[in-house]
From TrEMBL:
It comes from Eiseniibacteriota bacterium. Zn(2+) 2 binds at residues 93, 124, 387. Belongs to the peptidase M20 family. Keywords: Hydrolase, Metal-binding, Zinc. NCBIfam families: hydantase (TIGR01879). InterPro entries: Amidase_Cbmase, Bact_exopeptidase_dim_dom, Peptidase_M20. This is Hydantoinase/carbamoylase family amidase. Binds 2 Zn(2+) ions per subunit. Allantoate binds at residues 219, 279, 292. One of its GO terms (molecular function) is metal ion binding.
Amino acid sequence: MTTSPFTLEALSEKLDQLATFTAPGPGVTRLVYDEHWCDAHLWLQAEARALGLAATCDAIGNLWLHDPGLMPGTRVIAVGSHLDSVRQGGRFDGAYGTIAALLLAAELRGSATPVAAFVTCEEEGSRFPMALTGVRGLLGQLVPSRCADQRDRDGVRWADALASARARGCAAEAPPDGAPVPKLFNAARQLELHIEQGPVLESMGAKLGVVDTIAGYRRVRARLTGEARHAGTTPMDRRRDALAAAAEIVLAAEALGLETGAPAVATAGGASAEPGLYNVVPGTATLLLEVRHTDDAALVRMEAALGERARAIAARRGVAIELEVQSGEAATPLSAALADQAEAMAAGMAIPYRRMASGAGHDTMAFAQDGVPALMLFTPSRLGISHHPDELTKVRDLWVAAAFARELLLAWAKDLA
Ligand code: HGY
Ligand code: MN
Ligand code: MN
């Protein structure tokens, strides 16, 4: 009698193993194409094969874990998440949805409509200044030759990092220059399991989040140029202090988020100033600003307001400012019909659930934007902590959503047969 691969113990063990593939330091740091990402990728390929699945790489290092008999181009139910992490992040963000998808694909082999697991190479944008490159490649929407010269903070080119991963067996051959990543499978429906990364489910004692909207975001880099001067001899009223202007813009961004009100958020995720010495008034400063909203019109208004406020502060202080949108995604509704179906099933199974929006961005946005009926299922996050080493969800809570996903995928397979 073959034992099912789909067990709470297997989920827990494989999550523990995946968490070991990280750079040294607190939490998990697994950046796309780095050595830890490659080690994790090769481990995942071996785990899939040990479960009787084929592990197929695409040209930028996305993985499909699927029934070996599936031919490219087949219509599948796609379930998965991302392999990369933020710097010093948690061990569940992306990893949970990846391992759950591996076990679900192994468990549901031979179902009425094939269930294939996907593992995107990159979602976070934590190494190169691009996010969701994995899923855009998976969907045939990314032209690698156009990303080639993007550089990480050490100056490494995206194309060179990808080539080093390919040399280790973590990516298929590159398509011709100008051609998109060849699409391997067609998603008839798509599901992503993910930790909530916020406090909502835990605070209301719910065990499952049925996600029907994903917040959009804009990431804007502000470069401020004032005048570097002697800190001891330059009178306060004769300064063009770039860092003081940046500090005022940080508080203006915070005020914008508070004034707009939930679910709006606004963040200055990073600030730096040069030359960064006690005795020099900063001549230049850089800010990493982000605004998010689940309503796209509101998001557009926030982006405009942020720019106006930042420019007004810079002008008043006689500091030049350059605002550059680094990346962004539209607020994205998921499939209301699939969310209704999931809600009805959760109610029927007496699982305490909540239908909700996601404040975090996810690979699922790209599927939904591509017209694929898509859904996310969330698990609670302890104290809502995420993108931090203390990210934690009890494995029995992870299991509730995974076991529910098994039933949901079986229902989808029947719907589509
Ligand atoms: O930033 C986000 O929302 C996601 O975790 N990448
Ligand atoms: Mn994340
Ligand atoms: Mn994630």
